[in-house]
């Protein structure tokens, strides 16, 4: 979907906001964009994860594959969230 959207709208940023389990799906989609070399899409992403329901080890592995983003990924959490 992100690749298709980027192809139809060729300029500007693409902001993705996800919540809870959608955070895993978003992080995985961004990881797949990185490892498949979809850099034209990747460079336009602004990613916001709100209270992501992702295992911390899985998320760490996803972030290692994703590498740096500009702007950085935003992760919104609560003090009540557990690691």
Account of the protein in words:
The chain has 83 residues and is α/β, with parallel strands linked by helices. The protein has one domain (2-75). The protein contains four helices and three strands; from the N terminus they run αβααβαβ. The chain has helices at 2-8, 22-35, 39-42, 56-66; strands at residues 14-19, 45-50, 74-76. The chain has a three-stranded parallel sheet, covered by helices on one side. α4 links the parallel β2 (45-50) and β3 (74-76). It is globular. The N and C termini lie far apart (30 Å). The model has no long low-confidence stretch (mean pLDDT 90).
Approximately what portion of the residues adopt beta-strand conformation? 15-25%
Instruction: Characterize the biggest β-sheet.
Output: 3 strands, parallel
Number of helices: 4
Helix proportion of residues, in percent?
Answer: 40-55%
Report the mean per-residue pLDDT as an integer.
90
> Helix-strand pattern, N to C?
HEHHEHE
Report how far apart the termini are. 30 Å
The radius of gyration computed from the alpha-carbon positions, rounded to a whole number of angstroms, is 13 Å
Q: Compute the number of strand runs.
A: 3
- By helix and strand content, what is the structural category? alpha/beta
| Strand arrangement across the biggest beta sheet | 1-2-3
Number of domains: 1
Describe how the helices and strands are arranged:
Elements: H1 2-8, E1 14-19, H2 22-35, H3 39-42, E2 45-50, H4 56-66, E3 74-76
Parallel strand pairs: 1-2, 2-3
């Amino acid at each position: 979907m992100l690749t298709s959207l980027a192809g139809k709208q060729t300029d500007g940023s693409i902001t993705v906001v996800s919540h809870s389990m959608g955070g895993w799906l978003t992080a995985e989609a961004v990881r797949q964009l990185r490892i498949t070399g979809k850099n034209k899409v990747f460079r336009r992403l602004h990613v916001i994860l709100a209270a992501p329901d992702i295992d911390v080890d899985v998320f760490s592995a996803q972030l290692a594959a994703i590498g740096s983003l500009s702007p950085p990924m935003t992760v919104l959490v609560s003090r009540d969230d557990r690691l």
